[in-house]
Amino acid sequence: MGLDGCEGRALNGFPSNNECDHDICIDCLDKMLNDCEANGSPPICPNSLCHQPYAIDSVTALKAFFPQRAKYFERFALENQGFLLIKDDSVSKSEISPDFTVSSRRMEVKCELQGPDENNQTTVIFDRKGNVADFIREMRRALKILPLDKVYGYYIRREENASAERNNDRKPDEELLVDAKSVNRPISELNLTPDSIVVVDTSGIVQMKTLQIAR
User: What domain of life (predicted)?
Assistant: First the structure.
């Protein structure tokens, strides 16, 4: 069970993603959330020998179990950013100026897939004049993410964050909001540099909400 000495009735089907093997009752979860809310940390398994962080699907279930804690759950990015949000069947027209050169339009973006079992990195070549939705679709294709695969978030890791990570002083990555309006947002708004990394999270690890860009 969860906390030492617990004799409560375990919740069926929780945690949702089988993050650990500990059956948990509603009272143990309530006590755990009290501690996590006071510490400003994401929910974890209450078992003292485990403390495995709960994934997004499990935290979403906790949000439904404890509606009185809505303010606490607002701190976390729990939205599932599905492919249908950026589905676009229209044909886009590209404007080519007389002084067009490939080098002036070509950009290379480092992309990283953070999955439950493995990480994968690649470089996506894209048009500087393109839009955010097209870039997301191209990145998913390069990382072999299928249309129905769950994506829990897109994040931008800046150069200063990458260097700070080595000093254990890294700030949260910037959340890239992907929605139906993304088809009209130029990728230039993301201010990507050669050292930026666009991270795709399919692992469901809960992250604190950060600055959202491409609104």
Answer: Eukaryota
